[in-house]
Amino acid sequence: MSEQDDRSRFEAVYRRTYEQILGYAVRRCSSPEDAADVVAETYVIAWRRIAELPAGEGGKLWLYGVARRVLANHRRSERRRLTRHTELTDEIEHLYAAPSHRSEQPGVDEAMDMLADSDRELLALTLWEGLDPGEIATVLDCSRNAARIRLHRARKRFAKALEKTRPSAARFASRLLTEKESR
Amino acid sequence: MSDIDNLVKAIDLAPHAPDQGPGARDLREAIMATQARPHRAAQRPPWRAGAIGLAAVAAGAAVFLGQVAPTAVPSPTSTSGGTALSGTSILLAAAAKAEAAPDGAYWHLKELYTHQRLWPYSENGITYRLETSELSERWVAKDGRTWTGFRELTARPLDMEAWRRDGSPTEWAKGKDPSPPFSAAPGEAMFFQNKKKHRLYWSAMPMTLKEIEALPADPEALKKRAIEAIRRDNGVGPDEDALPRTLANLLYALPASPQVRSAAYQALATLPAVRVEGPTTDPRGRPGIAVTFLIQGDRTPRIRLIIDPDTSKVLAVEGIVTPDGDSHVNVVLESGWTDTEPSPPSTE
Lengths: 183, 348
Description:
Chain A: This is RNA polymerase sigma-70 factor, ECF subfamily. Chain A: Residues 14-81 form the RNA polymerase sigma-70 region domain. Chain A: GO terms for molecular function: DNA binding; sigma factor activity. The structure holds two protein chains of two kinds. Chain A is an all-alpha fold. Chain A has two domains: 1-98, Rna Polymerase Sigma Factor, Chain: A (Orthogonal Bundle); 102-183, Arc Repressor Mutant, subunit A, CATH 1.10.10. Chain A has helices at 3-28, 32-48, 57-76, 86-97, 108-114, 117-127, 133-140, 144-165, 170-182. By secondary structure, chain B is an alpha+beta fold. Chain B has helices spanning 3-10, 22-32, 38-41, 47-57, 87-97, 160-165, 209-213, 219-231, 243-252, 258-269, and strands spanning 63-64, 76-79, 82-85, 106-119, 128-141, 146-152, 156-157, 171-172, 182-183, 189-193, 200-202, 205-207, 274-281, 287-293, 303-308, 313-319, 327-338. In chain B, the strands form four sheets. In chain B, strands 1, 4, 5, 6, 7, 10, 13, 14, 15, 16 and 17 form an eleven-stranded antiparallel beta sheet that branches. Chain B has a two-stranded antiparallel ribbon with strand order 2-3.
């Protein structure tokens, strides 16, 4: 592949996936600066490893996987800011300032906070990133079946947590389980 | 989807796909300005070989400049195409003009960014070029407050015949991208004041207005500072590759003092692969002189400045890819101090 192919390819992938990768970062970082860093570093890696980037929808999942590792490294160490782009941080800051739905759903945030990181991540990938178990398996590098089982357990634990934080929501838990049986 | 799923979905912090603003575009370009797959760079001829090739091509009015001492004195150079100022002298003449600049309450940068891209997403399988434009504005007050303005302008097809065959669409979806499509109608204006702690960035270096004003007015010292600024990003590419763009940024994109702008012009004149292509006009039809910079490992330049040597203003900065590839140009509509208050971008 020529350098020109690499360039067109990278640009197309960037345009197609930017919003999703940014959303991923925003949902998991507490500050716009951190989110900007995660987005920037994810795409720097994608550019350097453009030859490994799978075509089509697989590219998006591959990027989620990269973003996930970038985020893990980011949390482990207090690293130097990678992002030179103040405008990017401003745009993201705007997103953080947008009205959130938090207050409308009492107990739900708290229930999410009670979960282990891995459970929270599974629910997030399913419900916020909109990935199916097969796609989650690719991002987390596990089998589709394992993803499905882990997701089922995460849902169950969330329902339990919700019973504690929001007793009136107990009905959701039972409904969840019946629904699971029928799937 | 179960009720419990809906509850979790409702606490999504980023439920709507955000737009790609100027920051997203800058990031993309900064990344693409570096070499992908660095291991392949070694197989390419070193920049000197490319530069010699270019020098051979640069007959006529274009003058190739090798290593030039920063203290070179402006002098007319005779070429086969007639009498032309050498590249160094054009940059140094601009450096001299840069020393005089008007004052005002706000530093204002207004850029029109135009991108010509291949459009492969047509449902009818027809590929053609699309030109998209964005206005991007930035204000800096003397007390450090900053504002950002952004607006997507109209997109237009460049091949009318192919566009008609495609059914004359007025919107062009970004592939499977859920974000709003490019449109023949201008987008909404985005305008906001940034937070107090906001910094201006020179390459990877966050800086306050005072720090920008205090940059050295000596070309060699300025180049050293530029390299330091570039290194802050942890080495995405060779430092020298980013030097032309980083120095050029001081000419129009940041509120640098007239002395620093002058030093930036002088520093650009010392770069090993600077070449003056000669008189041209910018996309707005404004006359200027085109100057290109060759980056190591490249055969063709990736960055072209169009400057007005009479006023020292940068008129446009073009990113050149390849003849068949995408190209983009930043037309500098305003860059300097003004007393006009910041306001949302209009459609022009």
